[in-house]
Amino acid sequence: MNGSAVAGDVFSSRDERGGFRTHAALLLVVVNIGLLVAGVASSFWFFGASIGVAGLAVALPATSLCTFIVLFTDHKDIRTAVMGAFTVLYLGFVSATFNTEFITMMNDQNGFGRHVYDSFNTFMLVMLGFYFGGKAVERVMTKRPAGKSNDQTAD
Length: 155
Description:
By secondary structure, this protein is mostly helical. The protein has five helices and no strands. The radius of gyration is 21 Å and the shape is flat. The two termini are 41 Å apart.
């Protein structure tokens, strides 16, 4: 493991030649930041109409969907794409707490937004556990010699 990726290694951000996968990274950064800026900007006064956090409510799932599509087409690994999409959505929720209207909505202890956010925290912990646990099991199983069994019973 000298830093270069093996062909088909979905755990690496490097391509088959050892270079960094810049197309996917650039697409993710530019599109996701653009969507988040548009969502946050839509909640400010200069749009004229008071739409509240509706633009942000559209931008957060849009960033998640974009992340899923880019990661899935780049890595061809559904688990990585789903985990990446939900991580971006979670980070979007966290960054949305800088918006005063979002904070007002979250302060309502019996409101729908508060229940969604609390449930999403638990969901992310479970997703992280299964993602990293599944990747660890996958790595162990691929390093195990083929055809070797743990059954040591004699005939």
